[in-house]
Amino acid sequence: MSGLRLIVVEDESLVAMMMEDMLADLGCQVVGSFGGLQAAFAWLDGAAQPPDGAILDVNLGGGEMVFPLAEALTARRVPFAFATGYGAISDPRFAAAPLMHKPVQEAELARVLEEFKASI
Fold first, then answer.
1. How far is CA 64 from the centre of its chain?
2. What pTM did the predictor assign?
3. What does the pLDDT look like over 27-36, one tens digit per residue?
């Protein structure tokens, strides 16, 4: 997993920091961390190179769902996983995406990152 360039989209700053720390411990580089869709889209649209993958919180607060970003990542062939405190993903377009339940465990994250690495 060393060298994977990832983005994290998570509205809870403490959870985002914990995720970033786990990713760094696994040898990944977090190239962007965003609390909402607007900032994530701005980065993605301006990035010279797309990330190797993304960890996406499903519900970003205030009714904002991450699915539009998941759709954009799919169009760019960027693998992603959802991290959520909820059950299954309600949007059938993303039923095949890995789903990690919060609090995310490092072993589960490592397994998802192996899937990312295999897909790039």
1. 15
2. 0.96
3. 999 999 999 9
